Amino acid sequence: MATRRPRTDKQRPLYMISVAAELAGMHPQTLRIYERRRLISPKRSTGNTRLYSEADIEQLRLIQQLTQVEGINLSGVERILELEREVVRLRDETQRLRHQAEELRARAGEAVRAECATGIVMVRRGTLARRP
């Protein structure tokens, strides 16, 4: 089950397109193109004005780095960003599963200690078995 991350200050929509474009060193039309290509997803105000966050500005700078310095086309950038999102998702899932495994180990340890206290558990070749 996917959980939604809480919004951080970096994700808070602040800048209108002209300001965001200036901060990223791009033309506003470039931001519109990137939005159509789903490279960025600015939030919208109640008046439907695009609002960009600090995270959006960082994303725009990354796109600029990839296209202008690294020479990657927009299709390549799309794939890179998609893979980065997948890495974040897998990292989150791994962290969740590690936490779950720790809880299960702790519960299993408690159960084994309780069983051992009653003397009804034997250990054979690394596995637990009830005494006959």
Textual characterization of the structure:
59% of the residues lie in helices and 9% in strands. With 132 residues, it is mainly α. It has 2 domains: 9-72, Orthogonal Bundle (Multidrug-efflux Transporter Regulator, Chain: A, Domain 2); 74-132, no CATH class. The chain has a two-stranded antiparallel ribbon. A two-stranded antiparallel ribbon has the order 3-4.
Chain-wise SSE layout:
Blueprint: H1 17-24, H2 28-36, E1 43-44, E2 50-51, H3 54-69, H4 74-118, E3 121-124, E4 127-130
Antiparallel strand pairs: 1-2, 3-4
Helix pairs in contact: 1-3
Beta percentage is 5-15%
Element order, helices and strands?
Answer: HHEEHHEE
Low-confidence blocks of residues: none
* Structural class designation: mainly alpha
Tell me the distance between the termini: 42 Å
Q: Radius of gyration, Cα only, in angstroms?
A: 25 Å
**Helix fraction?**
55-70%
Enumerate the strands of the largest sheet in spatial order, edge to edge or round the barrel: 1-2
- Strand element count: 4
Q: Which descriptor suits the 3D outline?
A: elongated
> What is the annotated CATH architecture of the largest domain?
Orthogonal Bundle
The CATH class name of the largest domain reads Mainly Alpha
Provide a quick synopsis of the model.
This protein has 132 residues and is mainly α. The protein has 4 helices and 4 strands; from the N terminus they run H-H-E-E-H-H-E-E.
